[in-house]
Structure formats: structure tokens, C-alpha cells
Amino acid sequence: MRVTIWNEYLHEQSDANVARVYPQGIHQALAALVQGAYPQAQVTTATLEDPEHGLPDAVLAATDVMLWWGHLAHERVADEVVDKVQARVLQGMGLIVLHSAHLSKIFRRLMGTTCNLRWREADERELIWTVNPAHPIAAGAPQPLVLEQHEMYGELFDIPAPDELVFISAFPGGEVFRSGCCFYRGKGRVFYFSPGHETYPVFYQADIAKVIGNAVGWVYQPVVSDIVTDTSPNAPLGWFEGSDQ
Ligand code: ZN
Question: Of these four, 80, 205, 242, 244, which has the most CB atoms within 10 Å of its CB?
């Protein structure tokens, strides 16, 4: 399994509070998390400032699962890179979209809606409840999974109805949020997971690592369907000729 972790990597270089939490960048924390869950996986990282944002064709072609974290600079991601990432998802690449990447170009492209939500930064406790215990992404998640301090994300979250909903979150202000959502797009699988605000060490938390590891396993497809879309006019197949139907 080949995993590419994409991180905008701006907060960590400009904000001392974030650098204290993620001194090597959020991408390195996520890389350690994924490598810990899958010691055999090939894990690489890419950031906004890299040429082609670190996602040239060769990297995209060699990626089975991509994680995406962004916040400040969604609009600086080149549309042609977004086009190529979308195409890879439609071909079967798995994509995990984390926290403020709900407003990333790639997520909005894949959803087709604004993906706006309510939010508040107030060091509040978040309770993440599993609503689909049979789902592989929920395996081993405590009930509830608690983030002692996190940013509030609340409904309405303007996304299409998820194909599978795994988690909902509750906050002290009374808000609720669909915090773990699965989508199928083409041959690919997409998981949105809301934890991961840059000033809180949530990506070091063992139960969060467990869920993200599960999500990597769920979006990863070792064998992608070889069904292709035929856009030319189709002759009748004749399957019913000679039958009594
Ligand atoms: Zn945030």
C-alpha cells in the first residue's frame, strides 16, 4: 500500500503555538501514525510549496491512499492538480479529508456543495459517538471518543447525504456535527473526519490514530474494479434471444 500525505504546511512555519504541537509539521505526525498502523506501507509526504504541490503525475500514479490537510491556502492549490487528484479518486484512489480540508478544492469538487459549516475556537470538549458500529472505520473506537479540547464544528454541514455515516460529534454549546462521513465517487472511496485542528495534539491521540488507521484500510482498494464506462452506442447483447421471457 502506497500512502501520500498532503499537508498545506503553513501554520507550523508561521505560528509558534502550532510549531510547538507539530514541530515537524502535521504531515510528519500523520506519516508516523500511518506507518505505525501499517509498517509495510510506503508512506510519503507532499506539501503546498513543493513543485506541483508535491503531486506530479508519477506520485499520483503511485498513490493508493491520500490524506489531505489544509486550511489557510485552499485557493492556492492549482486547479490542474485538483483535476488530477479527482481523476485518481474516480479511478479508485482512496482519499481521507481531515478537519479544515472540508473547504479544500478537492473536497468541494468531489461533493458538489459549499461544504460550509458552523465553527468556534473555544477549547471545548468534543464527544465523538459511533452511529455505525458495524463499520470497519469504527472498530475499536471508544464510546464516546473524547477530545478534551477541540474546535467546534457544527451543523449545518453543507455536504450531500453521506453514503455511510460513521460518527457524529456533540459539543458543550449544544451543537452536533456529522464528523465521520463516507462517500463513494466513481471507483474511489472518500472519508471525511473532522478532528485535527492545528493547535491541539489530537493526531498523537491513540484512539484518533486507531480511527485514521482504520480509515486508511477502508479507503484502500488493493484491487480496483475493471469495469469501464463505454461511451459509444451499444449494440443489443442478445442475452434474451431464444428465451421464453
Ligand atoms: Zn481548525
Answer: 205
